[in-house]
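Quick one, tokens below. Sequence please?
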């Protein structure tokens, strides 16, 4: 051996000795004796260009095939034989494939399902096969365990045909489960076949009749007395398993907790994922769009498990979005609004290229308290697990035994056919290049796997390096098991063109200081000895719990050990272990010691249980009474495509309605509602009747695109002319028409005193900017209501700053007149920025209403009212540096200290756009190429070349997107690689950047602004549940009657750029206040608030019985109405009333302000709602006059 080689080895030894210990130790094959490698060699006739699924890999199956208490390993191979390794202890294995007779019979093996199919106490192996064109070589294999030979080797006999399971479809994986609750195990077989003539990425009608060759199958288990084993019958058609899909993953779970197993399928390409909900009668119905608002696009493996220990099953599915800039720019597709439109047209679910983590929000509450299906919210970006490149297997289990399930992801692909430069090369040379030349141009994606540690707060931390997961590979199927029975979980990966990876968990190397665990093994009754489908709950530590639904078929192509594993950190004794068996029997074990394998026997289960749930939610705070009131009003909107004008917008600006305003418009003492109308649609008047129902009429009769060529956004109900009735002011906004045109002229509608309105065309200043909210206040204390209007955007020139305005009410003697006094009383509003919401509020308690403005790419702006003149005091607030995409603001004395605090809505943290002080999101804007079009180029920080690369500022969008906006980018970046390596400063020259608008945002957290006095504020994040989407309409009140202010929130934004995807994780949100400025989110089942759509305005009114109602608007969705169940009384307010001081039972005092408009596009009716926690009320008007309310 030469000296340089010796020196290299010495360095390795030295490094190994000083290296930090990692959670996992990758064991060399020389130690384990596992030499299996899923080797694939391409040829001219057999390669990734001709066979798309060639590199979809093989699986890993764990089972104790010789019943010695150690988990053995089975690998499926594609062009190589399958392998079975017997666990000899101490992580040593013996290849017994030939002796056992399980080499795969020359098939292309894909998934492996381990099951005791004949209930003889011996684990059998079912192999799914695919790819090969000859159906005879595509018959699935069933290896029946014959027991041990004289050498102690388990022998197997291939008997798929005898069992009726020699399926010849291009099958991916099988999952055994009892779909009909008859006690035996049936099987679902997942299929993925790209048949000749099919283009899997092309839109078209979805085949839902079983006619597509790529349709999965369901086989029923029918016992055969003569054969003494089951024979399986294909019941796909009668069961309704008829929807096509290019299946990669299947997980069985009772997702709606009704006692019947459901099927979740993740599909590749354009095909929808499928959620087959069990109908209890042998049939299934696909309810995907009912449960999920969107899914991953190229969905790979999946798992269903409880990641936040709330007892509800969450869904994890993988896709192929890279983390680093280079890979994103080289393989992701550019924005295509047509894809979004086609999804709607053909009935596809919305799909986005990223991993999704769908958090189970529990059952929805429907009309009149009826309980419905669960609803899920994707929090993949929020959780930090959305981007793991070309991914296959999610392993979701507690690897570090801290009590929370972690996630390890396998990934990689030998030939990246999605590489844009390769696609361009292929297009140019397809007629002249040889197949080998073509193949040689395809780059590989050989990268390390990912490990994410669950932080216990819905966040996951990337700990790949800390856990020792650093070796690059082409990894596919993977599974976990406690291979050495030491109480921590090891895992094994099936790699392409490399030996399989075996990772030993080192957590319990030092047992004296290791966290606790409990493993549960299920000893079921015949004919389900493995207890598949059983449910186990652990209860411990004053209300903590963990749950698990027993199914070993998880992830991708693989079977985990059929043992439940729970990490328990410092818990030494579990208070109770509850096991619910599939036959309706239950057992409860008390005071169970940890650090053991607990074997639970179905024969010991004596108690009965049921999954029946109440039909009605009797304990909610609110009741959905939309249908009972006969409210059938929808907010409709034409689909204007803002991105056709400015290609790189981060979101639309034409899709923000409906605005809502409430008040008594016809003088009958009942609160009515005005809902704004979009371009071409009339605003709606909802007139409340004495029976509490509503009559609906149009504000603009016969509205069409020609007769109503504007969009109502902000709405203000106020008495413009001091004649004692409420008039209507509507701002005109949107993005549909060119700037400074009549489409953006605001409207003033004068009330005749009976609720009939006529448009006044002369009283308003000629402001033709696109606006959002309008707010009323008597800012100069002269006895009439003045107006603030928020400038939102210059259409077709986002994000050029625009002006907001103050209009002084100069009406006299019935002649209405508003004067724009912005330049004299509030010059800081000139070119302020992109205002989204505003609030008149006395933030410094001096008796004069000040102004706070929330906007995009700007800090919250504070204008102090100095007796009718406004001074910008933002710089002294202490929060002037927090620039966000602020969307909404509402006031409340949330800490009961006598001054106003504020809740401010923002983008949240569940987005591709993530910002910090050091790494802000930016946008650069100007007509950079002098072609008459305003260019806006967003940027953000990403790792440059790989996940551990230097984080730099890069353009947010892809090369093709940039070219559509600025054609010169094609010349500047001739290849995709040139663009992928270019930081943002390479896009534009210094000359181009001269005089450009440059804006940034560093804070996207929706927050509480705590008023510290003297114009100072502290910004405190709202609970994480409030960070999952955009916040818009909000209503504040003590809704639960505990004396503290709560908040109801409406939100989401469906107008995002289509590659980022809809912000849709909210379903409405109730934040319960504690009176100290902290909040606790309530579930849908607790609050009764369920607003699942593109939520915008939210207002409160009174019904004829004095009850408090909330009206929630949804863009392109129905208006929803909720009634507060708690009793109280409402106190009408006078126009000049400014605020009240409430004395509470516990001696505290609370200030409540009365606004003409509060939160995004919302104006609630003016009344004070109080309950029995209030013992005294003092109301102050803007003249300083007080009155006491008994």
């Amino acid at each position: 051996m030469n000296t340089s080689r010796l020196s290299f080895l010495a360095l390795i030894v030295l490094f190994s000795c000083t290296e930090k210990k990692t959670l996992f130790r990758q064991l060399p094959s020389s130690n384990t004796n596992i030499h299996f490698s899923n080797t694939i060699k391409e040829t001219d006739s057999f390669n990734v260009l001709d066979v798309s699924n060639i590199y979809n890999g093989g699986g890993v199956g764990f089972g104790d095939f010789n019943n010695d208490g150690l988990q053995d390993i089975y690998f499926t191979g594609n062009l190589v034989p399958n392998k079975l390794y017997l666990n000899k202890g101490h992580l040593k294995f013996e290849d017994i494939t030939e002796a056992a007779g399980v080499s795969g019979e020359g098939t292309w093996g894909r998934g492996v399902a381990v099951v005791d199919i004949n209930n003889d106490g011996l684990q059998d192996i079912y192999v799914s096969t695919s790819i090969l064109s000859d159906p005879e070589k595509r018959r699935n294999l069933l290896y029946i365990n014959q027991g041990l030979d004289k050498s102690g080797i388990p022998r197997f006999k291939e008997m798929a045909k005898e069992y009726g399971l020699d399926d010849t479809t291009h099958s991916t994986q099988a999952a055994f489960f009892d779909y009909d609750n008859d006690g035996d195990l049936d099987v679902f077989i997942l299929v993925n076949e790209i048949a000749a003539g099919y283009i899997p990425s092309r839109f078209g009608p979805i085949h839902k009749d079983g006619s597509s060759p790529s349709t999965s199958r369901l086989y029923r288990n029918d016992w055969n007395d003569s054969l003494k084993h089951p024979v399986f019958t294909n019941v796909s058609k009668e069961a309704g398993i008829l929807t096509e899909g290019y299946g990669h993953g299947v997980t069985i779970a009772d997702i709606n907790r009704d006692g019947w197993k459901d099927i979740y399928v993740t599909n590749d390409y354009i095909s929808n994922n499928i959620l087959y909900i069990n109908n209890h009668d042998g049939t299934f119905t696909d309810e995907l769009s009912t449960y999920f608002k969107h899914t991953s696009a190229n969905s790979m493996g999946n798992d269903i498990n409880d990641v936040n220990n709330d007892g509800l099953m969450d869904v994890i599915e993988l896709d192929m979005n890279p983390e680093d800039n280079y890979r994103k720019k080289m393989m992701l597709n550019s924005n295509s609004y047509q894809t979004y439109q086609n999804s709607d047209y053909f009935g596809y679910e919305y799909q986005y290229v990223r991993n999704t983590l769908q958090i189970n929000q529990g059952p929805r509450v429907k009309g009149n308290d009826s309980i419905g299906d669960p609803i899920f919210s994707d929090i993949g970006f929020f959780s930090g697990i959305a981007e793991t490149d070309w991914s296959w297997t999610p392993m979701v289990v507690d690897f570090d035994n801290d009590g929370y399930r972690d996630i390890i992801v396998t990934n990689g692909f030998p030939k990246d056919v999605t590489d844009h430069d390769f696609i361009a090369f292929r297009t140019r040379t397809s007629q002249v290049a040889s197949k080998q030349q073509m193949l040689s141009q395809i780059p590989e994606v050989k990268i390390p796997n990912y490990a994410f540690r669950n932080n216990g707060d819905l966040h996951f931390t990337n700990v790949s390096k800390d856990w020792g997961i650093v070796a690059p590979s082409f990894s596919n199927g993977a599974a976990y098991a406690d291979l050495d029975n030491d109480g921590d979980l090891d895992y094994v990966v099936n790699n392409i063109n490399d030996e399989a990876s075996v990772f030993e968990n080192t957590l319990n190397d030092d047992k004296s200081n290791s966290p606790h665990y409990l493993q549960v093994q299920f000893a079921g009754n015949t004919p389900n000895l493995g207890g598949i489908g059983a449910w186990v709950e652990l209860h411990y530590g004053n209300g903590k719990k963990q749950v698990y639904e027993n199914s070993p078929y998880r992830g991708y192509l693989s079977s985990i050990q059929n043992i439940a594993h729970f990490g328990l950190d410092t818990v030494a004794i579990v208070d109770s272990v509850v096991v619910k068996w599939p036959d309706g029997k239950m057992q409860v074990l008390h005071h169970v010691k940890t650090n053991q394998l607990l074997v639970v026997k179905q024969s010991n289960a004596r108690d009965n249980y049921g999954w029946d749930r109440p039909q009605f939610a009797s304990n909610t705070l609110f009741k959905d009474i939309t249908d009972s009131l006969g409210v059938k009003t929808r907010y409709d909107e034409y689909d204007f495509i803002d991105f056709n004008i400015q290609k790189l917008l981060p979101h639309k600006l034409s899709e923000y309605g409906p605005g809502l305003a409430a008040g008594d418009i016809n003088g009958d003492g009942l609160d009515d509602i005005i809902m704004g109308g979009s371009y071409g649609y009339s605003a709606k008047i909802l007139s409340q009747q004495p029976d509490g129902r509503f009559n609906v009429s149009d504000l603009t009769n016969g509205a069409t695109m020609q007769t109503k060529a504007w969009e109502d956004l902000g709405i203000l109900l106020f008495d413009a002319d001091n004649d004692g009735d409420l008039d209507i002011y509507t701002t005109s906004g949107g993005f549909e028409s060119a700037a400074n045109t009549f489409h953006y002229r605001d409207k003033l509608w004068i009330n005749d005193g009976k609720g009939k309105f006529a448009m006044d065309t002369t009283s308003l200043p000629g402001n033709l900017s696109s606006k959002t909210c309008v707010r009323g206040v008597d800012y100069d204390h002269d006895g009439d209501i003045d107006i603030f209007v928020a400038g939102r955007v210059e259409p077709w020139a986002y994000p050029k700053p625009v002006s907001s305005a103050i209009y002084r009410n100069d009406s006299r003697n019935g002649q209405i007149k508003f004067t724009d006094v912005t330049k004299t009383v509030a010059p800081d509003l000139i070119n302020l920025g992109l205002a989204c919401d505003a609030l008149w509020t006395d933030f410094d308690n001096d008796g004069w209403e000040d102004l706070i403005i929330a906007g995009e790419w700007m800090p919250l702006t504070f204008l102090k009212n100095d007796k009718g003149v406004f001074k910008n005091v933002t710089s002294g607030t202490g929060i002037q540096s927090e620039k966000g995409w602020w969307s909404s603001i509402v006031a409340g004395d949330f800490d009961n200290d006598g001054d106003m605090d504020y809740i401010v809505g923002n983008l949240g943290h569940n987005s591709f756009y993530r910002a910090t002080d050091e790494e802000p999101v930016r946008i650069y804007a100007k007509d950079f190429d002098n072609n008459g079009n305003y260019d806006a180029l967003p940027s953000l920080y990403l790792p440059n070349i790989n996940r551990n690369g230097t984080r730099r500022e890069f353009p947010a969008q892809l090369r093709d997107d940039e070219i559509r906006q600025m054609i010169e980018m094609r010349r500047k970046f001739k290849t995709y690689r040139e663009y992928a390596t270019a930081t943002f400063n390479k896009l534009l020259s210094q000359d181009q950047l001269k005089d450009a608008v440059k804006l940034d945002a560093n804070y996207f957290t929706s927050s509480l602004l705590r008023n510290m006095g003297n114009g100072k504020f502290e910004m405190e994040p709202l609970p994480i549940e409030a960070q999952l989407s955009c916040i818009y309409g909000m209503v504040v009140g003590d809704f639960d009657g505990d004396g503290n202010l709560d908040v109801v929130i409406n939100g989401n934004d469906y107008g995002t750029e289509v590659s980022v995807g809809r912000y849709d994780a909210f379903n409405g949100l109730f934040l319960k206040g504690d009176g100290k400025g902290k909040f606790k989110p309530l579930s849908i089942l607790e609050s009764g608030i369920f607003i699942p759509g593109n939520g915008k305005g939210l207002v409160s009114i009174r019904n004829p019985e004095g009850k408090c109602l909330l009206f929630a608007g949804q863009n392109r969705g129905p208006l929803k109405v909720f009634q507060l169940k708690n009793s109280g009384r409402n106190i009408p307010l006078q126009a000049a009333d400014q605020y009240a001081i409430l004395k509470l039972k516990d001696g505290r005092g609370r200030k409540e302000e009365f606004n003409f408009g509060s939160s995004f596009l919302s104006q609630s009716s003016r009344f004070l709602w109080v309950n029995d926690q209030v013992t005294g009320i003092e109301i102050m008007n803007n003249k300083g006059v007080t009155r006491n309310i008994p």
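Residues 1-18 have pLDDT under 50 and may be disordered. Residues 487 and 609 are 31 Å apart (CA to CA).
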